[in-house]
Design brief:
The complex is a heterodimer. By secondary structure, chain A is α/β, with parallel strands linked by helices. In chain A, 31% of the residues lie in helices and 22% in strands. The chains are: A alpha/beta, B alpha/beta. Chain A: GO terms for molecular function: ATP binding.
């Protein structure tokens, strides 16, 4: 809250008319969020009297990415791949073991205590389970003004005014202010979750599975809402989801995670048109398409087995134990993270 | 005559009606889908067929008179239409917490709903079996996998001891679990989600049932594991000729698995058709809305979605008009003027405006 206006590296991405900055000076603007080699390892402890650390679950094991202001980065992967931990570590809700996170030029990973707390107003999160993330004893007014109170923004009347404006933005009437979370449907609750994240007018919103708990017809409403809000408030999103179609729909750039690492990254058009990593290919071929003609003629890559344990990942390429194309080299050498085509990065020894 | 014919099934919990006159049929070796969103009654339908709903105090058995509307059922589905009105105020009959079930579910010539509990128990697990959504809560956490499979084999096939374990291992092998003998001694928490679902399928197919009901069998699983499980189910249907009733909310799963589809909304079938027909020419605005709500991998990127407005809470009773009318973009006055009928034979829909729409 204190430094952003004077920082020369941050071209006005906090204003509410982001088009000026992001559209005009596209090439020059540094990315809003830069993550370098982020690692989050959780210790595995054994022992009753004396606890010893016997190993680490490498939930996130060296992930780097950047998101331009006003852009949307979609992170996909299956359960246990570390995508949620990554999202939480970016917001410092999880303490990173190593690596750096920079938001608008400020190093988030270096912040501590009060400065970190104040910094959180710039980065907010939308959670998967809208009921579990809203306090059942708070009415909507309290839920929405809470972040403002925490950060000491405005008077009571101003906070209420802002709450009404934000409710309007997410498509809920003013009359809901006095109501409690249990009185809403799943879709409305998710709107409230989004409204709460918006209250501080953050730069970055991490959406962790924003629609996976919702019914199909409601999913579409919430996805459209996220799109509209991005334009209206100049938001930058990190969308974490397991549903490839949802990620494709929302994102400009997509990264695929497997067992704590990125295996492929490209803009959403080319990753779906020309997937290069065998895991991405398998994922895409596994998504059922709502079209019987397409389904009948499809070639499926059925992966064998389950995800290996992230406490003891396979040597070399982590995907080799399930990869239909694996060869000897895959067990010996870890594939480098290379640019296979312009803007299309992949971690695989082969050009598939 | 189909293997399973559900006719005008109605289930009410006290005053709230979950299933409001659903009819469909499942043929041997076919996969029939029940599709809809939460609260449409698809799971309750399957539980009613399996006789797994808690019984209300006044049991239905003695008066299926008005339920079994005598209509030709040759084409299979879609007979519910003519049922005169929505469920008669069921006050008192469904006991507290119990379900009041009416209608017929004829399996191989026998109405399952009229069977005594003991007779139903003899069939359940043997002639018809079920796979549930959440494999962890459907398996007993303190009993080894092996015991949970041999239990079924003992009860319905009279296998004991080594013979039973050997058969159990074969079953695990059949559903693609490596090292089956070791797995037999393990507990559910030692298996991954996909493995647990395979165990459930192994239990379900232990007695080679003629009908398998799968209630959201892959919803809790990752896509790559989902693909494995769907492949396994597909294989069962093809090799054993099992009839599969597939309950799901995922139209992608429907497109890949089903032969016939019934779309449910607010306790009724609103559209039913062979799968290709349904996707080529969706007729009911709800089906159209569902299809428009899904982001698809094979359409141009950033194609805007066309969601259905409102939520299932915005509903009117079927006897007053179309329950979907409050959310429908094509709503007109005939929609709220009495009960819409299910029209059409092969491709049936319950929309009075359908002609104008098409």
């Amino acid at each position: 809250m204190s430094t952003e206006q004077t920082d020369p590296h941050v071209p006005a991405q906090r204003t509410e008319e982001p088009d000026l900055s992001s559209a005009v000076s596209d090439a020059a603007a540094p990315p809003l969020l830069e993550v370098e080699d982020l690692k989050v390892h959780f210790p595995i402890r054994r022992g009753i009297v004396v606890e010893r650390t016997v190993g680490h679950v490498r939930a996130v094991d060296g992930v780097g990415l950047s998101i331009d202001a006003g852009g949307t980065y979609g992170l996909v992967g299956e359960s246990g791949c570390g995508k949620t931990t990554f999202g939480r570590a970016v917001l410092r809700l999880e303490e990173p073991t190593a690596g750096r996170v920079r938001l608008g030029g400020d190093e988030v990973t270096a912040l501590k205590g009060e400065r970190l707390r104040r910094y959180r107003s710039k980065m907010q999160m939308v959670f998967q389970d809208p009921l579990g993330s809203l306090n059942p004893r708070h009415n909507v007014d309290m839920l929405l003004s809470e972040p403002l109170k925490v950060h000491g923004v405005g008077s009571k009347a101003e906070r209420r005014k802002l709450a009404v404006e934000t409710l309007d933005a997410v498509g809920l009437p003013k009359s809901v202010l006095e109501r409690f979370p249990h009185e809403f449907s799943g879709g409305q609750r998710q709107r409230l979750g989004i409204a709460r994240a918006l209250m501080l007018r953050p730069d970055l919103i991490v959406c962790d599975e924003p629609v996976s708990a919702l019914d199909v017809s409601i999913q579409a409403q919430v996805m459209n809402l996220l799109d509209e809000l991005q334009d209206e408030f100049g938001l930058t999103y990190l969308v974490i989801a397991h549903d490839l179609a949802v990620v494709r729909h929302l994102s400009d750039r997509v990264g695929v995670m497997y067992l704590g690492k990125l295996v492929e990254e490209a803009d959403s058009e080319s990753i779906y048109e020309h997937p290069r990593h065998p895991y991405t290919k398998a994922l895409l071929s596994a998504v059922p398409q709502p079209d019987p003609e397409v389904e009948a003629g499809r070639e499926r890559i059925i992966l064998k087995g389950d995800l290996p344990s992230p406490a003891n990942p396979p040597s070399g390429c982590r995907f080799r134990t399930r990869c239909p194309w694996a060869e000897d080299i895959c067990a010996e050498v870890e594939p480098e993270w290379r640019e296979a085509a312009s803007g299309h990065k992949v971690a695989c020894h082969f050009d598939l | 005559m189909s293997l399973l014919e559900v006719e005008d099934l109605r289930v009410a919990f006290g005053a709230s009606v979950a299933v409001d006159g659903v009819s469909f049929s499942v043929d041997e070796g076919k996969v029939v889908g029940l599709v809809g969103e939460s609260g449409c009654g698809k799971s309750v339908t399957s539980l009613a067929v399996m006789g797994l709903l808690p019984k209300g105090r006044g049991r239905r058995a003695r008066q299926p008179v008005q339920a079994a509307v005598s209509e030709p059922v040759d084409g299979g589905l879609k007979t519910a239409a003519a049922a005169p009105q929505a469920i008669p105020a069921s006050g008192g009959r469904g006991g507290r917490g119990g379900a009041d079930v009416q209608g017929r579910a004829v399996f191989d010539g026998v109405d399952l709903l009229s069977l005594a509990p003991a007779a139903m128990r003899r069939r359940r697990g043997k002639d018809l079996a079920m796979v549930f959504q959440d494999p962890l809560s459907s398996l007993n956490p303190v009993v080894p996998i092996g015991r949970q499979i041999t239990e079924v084999l003992e009860r319905h096939r009279g296998l004991k001891g080594d013979k039973a374990s050997k058969e159990a291992a074969l079953l695990l092998d059949r559903v693609g679990i490596p090292d089956p003998y070791r797995r037999l001694r393990e507990y559910p928490h030692q298996l991954s989600g996909g493995m647990r679902q395979r165990v459930l399928i192994a239990i379900a197919v232990a007695c080679a049932p003629r009908l398998l009901i799968a209630d959201e069998p892959t919803t809790a699983l990752d896509v790559t594991i989902q693909a494995q499980i769907l492949e396994l189910l597909r294989d069962l249907v093809e090799t054993e000729g099992t009839a599969l009733l597939m309950i799901t909310h995922d139209l992608g799963v429907v497109a890949g698995m089903c032969d016939e589809v019934n779309v449910l909304y607010s306790g009724r079938v609103v559209e039913s058709a062979p799968v290709r027909e349904l996707f080529r020419k969706p007729t009911h605005p709800y089906t159209i809305g569902l299809l428009g709500s899904i982001p698809r991998l094979d359409l141009p990127i950033h194609e805007p979605l066309t969601p259905i407005r409102g939520s299932i809470a915005d509903v009117i009773r079927w006897r007053d008009g179309c329950a979907f009318a409050p959310r429908c973009d094509r709503v007109a006055s005939p929609c709220v003027d009495g009960e819409p009928a299910l029209v059409g034979a092969v491709h049936a829909h319950r929309c009075v405006m359908a002609e104008e729409v098409a």
